[in-house]
Amino acid sequence: MQQSEFLNVVMPFKDKLFRLAKRLLVSTEEAEDATQEILIKLWNKNTSFEKYKSVEAFAMTMTKNFCLDRLKSKQAGNLKLVHSNYQEKGSLLQKQIEAKDSVSWVEKIMDELPEQQKMVLQLRDVEEYDYDEIGEMLDMQPTAVRVALSRARKTVREKLVQKHNYGIG
Question: 75 versus 17: which is more confidently predicted?
Fold first, then answer.
């Protein structure tokens, strides 16, 4: 496979790989490193792409496994645990501040979810994969994916309602 063919296959879902890595590793730098490692591994396996039903699903599974291994490794203690995403500079309109605050709360709540629920929620609601694809990536039955997604959404909803009713939680 030529480089241009590889780029045509991989580039459409490169950002999804990064977002999954970011969700799992928190640190932008770690997520960038993980994405780069996965792209290198994909390049090394590009001759065997034909045997995969979906190269994208294969890449997402590789990303998930790589990030989980990274978190379990000795280097996990060095991972940056602070979100540095939403440093908005510019207009301080009330609606923008409220939206930013809500997104920040949803991210914090998602980070507290059990690993499986966190990944299902990320893959379904952020990356927009269907239940069968998620089941394939996470080695789960589609019904188990639906249950995990339902529980994750319920937890996020309850914690957001609690935060809005009682102030800072």
Answer: 17
